[in-house]
Amino acid sequence: MLEELLVAGAAVGGATLVYLSAAARVVKQYERGVVFRLGRLTGGVRGPGFTAVIPVIDRIRKVNMQIVTMPVPAQDGITRDNVTVRVDAVIYFKVVDAADAVVQVEDYRFAVSQMAQTSLRSIIGKSDLDDLLSNREKLNQGLELMIDSPSIGWGVQIDRVEIKDVSLPETMKRSMARQAEADRERRARIINADAELQASKKLAEAAGVMSEQPAALQLRLLQTVVAVAAEKNSTLVLPFPVELLRFLERAQNQNPAPQDPAAQPPPATRPPVTDE
To answer: Which of helix, strand or coil describes residue 227?
Structure first.
């Protein structure tokens, strides 16, 4: 009798152990468990820790609640200003409702990926090339809104969408390089012209001061000679005042040089006239 009780107790213990091992589940901290009983969603979402289900009848599905980083494959498109580009992006999202992520959509990761690709192509067609290159923050917000609207019903929340790279054709790159070079050359010419204008104003002021004080011109001439001589050059260039040349020219015009009589040709004589 005792042996039969021991055997029965061992059998019950073994069955209990098997049941517990089949019913016991462990949900990790970053996971949530969704339980289906005979195919129907039952109870609430199981939190992290130890939980038990009815073997064979219940089935638990664990959903990762961490932020998922998903690259969006590069998409080819034509911008609003008819430029062919290739754009890729990255999307950050997480599951906020585990039950909806399991029940409302077959594969929420695949659904989000397809929605991101479609939205990215739509953004390319609605934007200009300059917006894709310099105004990405606004495009990121629009892309995030386009993806987040349908994903709310899937229990998924879009945290952020970023456009990573915009690939342009080689011809467009060369055109943009020429445009940037022309713009820089234009700015350089404007700066040089502005510098010439400022220099001319200063020179005009200096000329006015020197005209009031003629000795200032002589001092400036001596300073120039000193600056040239300081370089230890073998040749010294000495400016010659233009006023002196004009003075000599006026003096020559007032006192013309006498002509040599010997150099002058003899006066012409007329032959005598005879009456016939």
So the answer is: helix
